[in-house]
From TrEMBL:
Tagged with keyword RNA-binding: no
Signal peptide: none
GO molecular function, one term: transmembrane transporter activity
InterPro entries cross-referenced by the UniProt entry: MFS, MFS_dom, MFS_Efflux_Transporters, MFS_trans_sf
Domain Major facilitator superfamily (MFS) profile: 30-406
Pfam families xref list: MFS_1
Keyword annotations: Cell membrane, Membrane, Transmembrane, Transmembrane helix
Protein name: Transporter
Superkingdom of origin: Bacteria
Membrane topology: Multi-pass membrane protein
Phylogenetic classification of the source organism: Bacteria, Bacillati, Actinomycetota, Actinomycetes, Kitasatosporales
Localization per Swiss-Prot or TrEMBL: Cell membrane
Membrane spanning residue stretches: 26-47, 67-89, 96-115, 121-145, 157-176, 182-204, 225-248, 260-281, 293-311, 323-342, 354-372, 378-398
One GO term describing the cellular component: plasma membrane
């Protein structure tokens, strides 16, 4: 029987999780469906990144205002992740994921027809609702689908969807936008969401709730020092990354002199490197969460700070080097921080995932908003300096904060 650290009483959700582990089903096809889900939600969220210039031109708004299409999605997802986890506490996870993915399809279709920025922002609110729920639920399901010895690899595969969104999703969206306009990119994303919804309905086994998720149980996780450290790491790293990355296209165009065709190639290089970083970090974080995150924070900070310097002095080749190294580091952020939090709260995986997704997407929104204000006030180079400074703050946190596995403080 599982017991809580603080009270010694039987923790029924942990005991129920143990029963569900013995009922594993679905295997790797189901894990693949979850990876497709994370790919789809992250692509949907980040699609405007590669389309900021044409969206702004078509709707006659500034780059900073166009960046709100990322900000609003992240804010809504941050709120939706814990709330939806509570609202669907007893619902079968397969059904919930399928419904949320169908909603994402409808949201992207609405975005493709948006006549003005107000309608586009409504569509992006719906994207935030769907992605917050999908990510929070999918993030902790690998343990229920494969044998214990395969859980680390399965978790890395689920989070590979995040990196694959950069490899395929965002560059493909930018490419489609060049061919058929930014609206065609959103329409194509709606079709992909529909296909993934069907795949989830077919490939996922029945996934009854591991136990009731209550608000008090979620909030009690803040008592764990390593959980607090992990969430602060997520906040600093992701805010720093998206402060810079949301405006990477203007940086590459104005500082390095990259053309429209080169932008897609550079974003593809970022994504390919990120896919490699995801699996490397997944393996490393399973052995040493702190060591892996120290490396990620240091490399990410250096790459972001050096991008405008290399872009100015060495043009597109220099910028490409910085972008690839940046992608390698950021590709490992999701899986390594999630591993940190799962190790910090092994008996409350879904609650920890909800907090992870809430902070992650709140940081995306904050990063996009902060970057927009910096871009409008300081210019695009100032955006890079700010993003790099936040990543450096994460490096200090990783080195000094409480890691999972030690005695926890109240």
């Amino acid at each position: 029987m599982a017991k809580t650290e603080e009270t010694g009483r039987v923790d029924e959700p942990v005991a129920r999780l143990g029963e569900l582990r013995r009922e594993r089903g679905g295997g790797w096809p189901a894990v693949g469906a979850l990876a497709a889900g994370t790919f789809t939600v992250v692509t949907s969220e980040m699609l405007p990144v590669g389309l900021l210039t044409p969206i702004g031109r078509d709707l006659r708004i500034s780059d900073g205002t166009a960046g709100l299409t990322v900000t609003v999605t992240g804010l809504v997802a941050a709120v939706a992740a814990p709330l939806l986890t509570l609202l669907v506490a007893r619902r079968d996870r397969r059904m919930v994921l399928t419904v949320l993915m169908a909603m994402l399809a409808a949201a992207n279709l609405l975005a493709s027809y948006a006549p003005n920025v107000a309608v586009l922002l409504v569509a992006r609110v719906l994207v935030g609702l769907g992605m917050g729920g999908v990510w929070a639920i999918a993030a902790g399901l690998a343990v229920r689908l494969v044998p214990q010895r395969r859980v680390a690899a399965a978790t890395s595969l689920v989070f590979s969807g995040v990196a694959a969104a950069s490899v395929l999703g965002v560059p493909a969206g930018a490419f489609i936008g060049e061919l058929g306009g930014w609206r065609a990119s959103f329409a194509a994303m709606a079709a992909v969401c529909g296909v993934v919804a069907v795949a989830m309905a077919v490939l996922l086994p029945p996934l009854p709730a591991a136990g009731p998720v209550r608000l008090g149980g979620v909030l009690r996780l803040f008592r764990l020092a390593s959980v607090r450290t992990g969430l602060l790491l997520v906040a600093l790293l992701v805010t720093g990354h998206f402060t810079a990355y949301t405006y990477v296209r203007p940086v590459l165009e104005e500082v390095a002199g990259a053309g429209a065709g080169q932008i897609s190639t550079l974003l593809l290089a970022f994504g390919v490197a990120g896919l490699v970083g995801n699996f490397a970090a997944g393996a490393g974080a399973a052995r040493s969460p702190r060591g892996t995150l120290l490396l990620i924070c240091g490399v990410l900070a250096g790459a972001v700070l050096l991008l405008p310097v290399l872009g100015r002095d060495a043009g597109v080749p220099g910028a490409a080097t910085a972008v690839a190294v940046w992608g390698l580091a950021y590709g490992g952020v999701s899986v390594s921080t999630q591993t940190w939090l799962m190790a910090s709260a092994p008996g409350a995986r879904e609650a920890a995932s909800a907090l992870f997704v809430a902070v992650f997407n709140g940081a995306i929104a904050l990063g996009a908003l902060t970057g927009g204000r910096a871009a409008d006030g300081w210019g695009v180079v100032g955006v890079m300096w700010l993003g790099g400074a936040l990543a450096a703050g994460a490096l200090v946190t990783a080195g000094t904060g409480r890691a999972p596995g030690g005695a926890e403080e109240g």
